[in-house]
Please model this.
Amino acid sequence: MDPTIILLKKGEACEFKLTVTPLCSSKLNDKITIVCQSINSGKEEVGYLKFKGETEITTKLDIDEIIFDNKIGEGTSGIVFKGRFREHTVAIKDMKDRSYNIKIKEEFEKEVSMLDKFRSDYIIYFYGSVLFKNKRYLVTEYAEHGSIRNLFSLKKEAIPIKLRIKFMIDAANGIQYLHVNGILHRDIKPDNILVLFLSEDVQINCKLTDFGSSRNINTLMTNMTFTKGIGTPVYMAPELLSQKHYKKEADIYSFAVTMYECFKWGEAYDREKFVYIWNIADFVISGKRLQQINEIPEPIYKLICGCWKQNPKDRLVIEQVLDRLQLLYKVK
Model:
């Protein structure tokens, strides 16, 4: 408020300016307290100036507009709740790390900045974030059916193979959008493909999510392997397990294992045979791959084989994968 204090003689009036600088998207409905005091008598009178308004929509959200409902999931980095933001049903990721330092704040802001740039029908919609004291929330579109991983508990017959092909088409469209824009996902797996609809009559059934590991190709200058917490070993390409640089081809390999699990409708690697993570790593680094099983038709298995080849340069690019999936969908 300018001026904050003014001396008035009897019968005089003044103008003052009130400036409100919002720190996030919010709806304002508040009041300013104005105190008048007589110099002679010392008597005080209190008045109120009411004001209301609404800011432009940005991705910096007001913590008071975020309403938590029930918990729907939990990962290594955060707990996910179903909730509400204004008139929208949303998913709210509450980041577990409550420490507050410059590095964590900068990493969180980098992730938010990247999410804010994604605008694709095949990428889960990002409403915004909350950074308030030691609380950090990411607010995104809500997927009613959870991830593909969540659906593995259903019988295979409940999700026809044609619908599963459609799931993979939608995911491939999301990966293509990222790759065209110079972004590597770096953690493609069934857990990070969310299912919005189970009907074949809709245009989009699935969307990609979880971009905490995503990076711009041009700034990817360091080795990223599972020992450094990037990606999930089951879905990691042999070159990453050998501690080489992450490139687009590694995303394609991850998608190959994801497709294998989607059509098998369960975990790719038998836990009785592959007891430890390093059993999988040794298997993959040596050039071995999982065999075709009855649940996976030969044309689909051939497509998977084209995506998980040992030499990254021999793998299909995402445009080729998408073309073949679309052809398989038409045949089915």
In short: Residues 292 and 298 are 8 Å apart (CA to CA). Residues 218-230 have pLDDT under 50 and may be disordered.
